[in-house]
Design goal:
Length: about 525
């Protein structure tokens, strides 16, 4: 049938393409099918997950790996509620994501008439985990909402944004005006603020840099500031890889450890950039910053939050760090750098000496994984004990190569987010790191990965236990219960999904298995057990 004019659903795809979107993760349904009409003739690749939760995590992994917004298409009602968990993860970890959903016809919305997929207030449900949530009832509304979302991606703290379009609106003629709009550049710092920060850092005797995910790509600027002031550098997990692991002034992503936090508390000037310094960065409720605190963030709410700053700078963190670095260059602080590097070396020795038995055991498989992966390989981890250890001790030298669901703390993240990351970076190596329980939240996405014919090692830590919860129960004097499970045969399950699987018996076999998994065009489950650490 010949259609006289493009529909709004079709025009949405054209506008997304104009904004540079090359990949959409989603599931078509009777309510959002109009958004799928134009996809085959567009330049946008569509990836079909097996659950909307998978679509959201894939979009998250794509965004973290590429720095570009991840985009999801979903349907009214259950499609939207299914994607809310990964959207919440993206919100808490400052990940740019755009969710486009259908909603009931204008005449039927929230009327209680028993329509398919009806919710009392779908937009408000989305609003709880999104930066903005908009119902677009006209072509102009849709254009404005998409343009506003991309303006926010360019200029504000990264967040997920949600746009819903009624089914009957998706089918209406699109009309004109579907062009990309220009957006302003991210705001830079005021020169007087840069000058004050430089003066404070020059005078500092024990400067410390705390760098978060908002500045994870500011490698050169952070290195320069550290070398020209003798500052110790600590990162959050989101900024892991900012500097090479062997950099003398890098204390790593060790903020949760009291010995590392002591360095921050003893600093007379602390520069915190692109970080909330939240509970999930520090893993304790309070953090005593005794020196003068310089905070740099694009989000004014962060500057108004806990840890009041002597100098708050509302600006793009990487641009501000670069401006500070430029003014500090040429004042190489050799003596202070030597003292700081000694302090970092002592901290690393202390952290290693204080490791418990589990952490020492987990070093073995983590070292084998590191040895087998290229330096720029991306590891996407889940909420599991081996990943908690890796947050602090897995060496990284490239930004955005360790992706962990820190803020919301969702299980099931690793596999679908790794699929999304792989979709974004192409030939670069990507691996998922998951526990036996968390993997089963989203193991159905093995089908998606197999369908895509991608090389994707899935490093599975299998101790037949909810290990972290078990240990927490013991610590709190609770008799461990509801923390053991009867696991499936993961290798047989991999084969059922047309994937490979193996159980290496030693670290050397683990290295070889991982290298082989990177060489085949399909996913591979590599099952690791605690016995491997002692082999």
């Amino acid at each position: 049938m010949t259609r006289p004019e493009e529909s709004i659903g079709e025009a949405i795809v054209s506008l997304l393409e104009a904004y540079g979107v090359d990949t959409v993760f989603g599931i078509p349904g009777v309510h959002n099918v109009e958004m799928y009409r134009a996809l085959p003739r567009s330049g946008i690749r569509h990836i079909l997950p097996r659950h909307e939760q998978g679509a959201g995590f894939m979009a998250d992994g794509y965004a973290r790996a590429t720095g570009r917004p991840g985009v999801c298409f979903t349907i009214t009602g259950p499609g939207l509620t299914n994607v809310l968990t990964p959207v919440g993860q993206a919100y808490s970890d400052s990940v740019p994501m755009l969710v486009l959903s259908s909603t009931l016809d204008l005449a039927d919305a929230a009327r209680g008439r028993g329509r398919l997929h009806e919710m009392r207030d779908q937009r408000c449900a989305a609003q709880t985990v999104c930066g903005t949530a908009v119902t677009a009832n006209t072509a102009q509304d849709v254009q404005d909402a998409i343009s506003a979302a991309f303006a926010r991606f360019a200029n504000e703290r990264p967040r997920p944004h949600y746009i819903e379009v009624p089914i009957d609106v998706l089918n209406r003629p699109a009309g004109s005006g579907w062009q990309r709009r220009q957006v302003a550049e991210r705001p830079g710092p005021r020169q007087e603020d840069v000058g004050r920060a430089v003066a404070m850092l020059r005078e500092a005797k024990r400067p410390v840099l705390v760098i978060g995910g908002g500045a994870r790509f500011a490698t050169d600027a952070v290195r320069s500031i550290a070398e020209n002031t003798g500052a110790i550098v600590l990162t959050t997990v989101a900024a892991k890889g900012l500097l090479p692991d062997n950099f003398d002034l890098l204390a790593g992503a060790a903020l949760p450890d009291p010995a590392a936090s002591k360095l921050v508390m003893e600093g007379d000037v602390v520069l915190a950039a692109g970080t909330e310094m939240s509970e999930t960065d520090l893993w304790y409720q309070t953090f005593d910053v005794r020196g003068d605190l310089i905070r740099v963030d694009i989000d004014p709410a962060v500057l108004a939050g806990p840890y009041p700053a002597a100098l708050p700078i509302l600006a793009d963190a990487p641009a501000t760090l670069e401006a500070i670095a430029v003014k500090l260059r040429g004042t190489y602080a050799a003596a202070k750098m030597a003292a700081a590097s000694t302090g970092v070396a002592e901290l690393r020795d202390t952290l290693k000496a204080n490791e418990d038995e589990l952490r020492r055991a987990l070093r073995v498989p983590l070292a084998a994984i590191r040895a087998a992966l290229p330096d720029d390989a991306i590891v996407v981890s889940d909420m599991t004990q081996i990943a908690y250890a890796g947050n602090e001790i897995f060496p990284t030298s490239v930004p955005a190569t360790w992706l962990h669901p820190a803020g919301f703390g969702t299980l099931g993240y690793a596999l679908p987010a790794a699929i999304g990351a792989k979709a974004g970076v192409g030939e670069r190596a990507v691996a998922a790191l998951a526990g036996d329980y968390g993997l089963q939240y989203t193991i159905n996405e093995l089908a998606t990965a197999a369908e895509m014919e991608i090389s994707l090692p899935i490093l599975l830590w299998n101790n037949d236990l909810l290990g972290a919860i078990h240990d927490d129960m013991v610590k709190k004097g609770i008799q461990p219960n509801a923390v053991t499970q009867k696991n499936p045969d993961f290798i047989a399950l991999a084969k059922a999904y047309h994937c490979d699987g193996c159980r290496p018996g030693s670290p050397r076999e683990l290295e070889e298995a991982l290298r082989q998994a990177l060489a085949v065009p399909r996913p591979t489950i590599i099952e690791m057990t605690p016995a491997l650490a002692s082999a």
